[in-house]
Amino acid sequence: MSDKVRQQQLYQVLKQKYVGLGNEKTTKEEWLTNVNRDTYNSLQGHSASLEYITLGKRASSKRDTKVDLINKMCNDEKIRRNDGDNK
Questions:
Q1: Which domain holds residue 63?
Q2: Who contacts 19 (Cβ-Cβ below 8 Å, separation ≥6)?
Q3: pLDDT in tens, 16-61
Q4: Which superkingdom heads the taxonomic lineage of this protein's source (predicted)?
Q5: The total number of structural domains that make up the chain
Q6: Which DSSP state fits 26?
Q7: Cα torsion for 22, 43, 72, 27, to the nearest 10°?
């Protein structure tokens, strides 16, 4: 029984630390939005990944690519809402 309590406490700590974990009431769309934001954040935060993306996109600079990823991260929810309205 103590293992179950310990796991629950650990889950609560992780849930407070990482908001994107969600809970049983988290919808699929919310979860996907969180995953996309986490991915964009990780890509723009790691220099090697950012350089790789910049080269792949043939962008002019890493700064431009970083700004583009940050904009995608911030505007992701607005894009999803607009797509839902058009259907």
A1: 1-85
A2: 34
A3: 887 767 777 888 888 888 888 889 999 999 999 999 999 999 999 9
A4: Eukaryota
A5: 1
A6: -
A7: -20
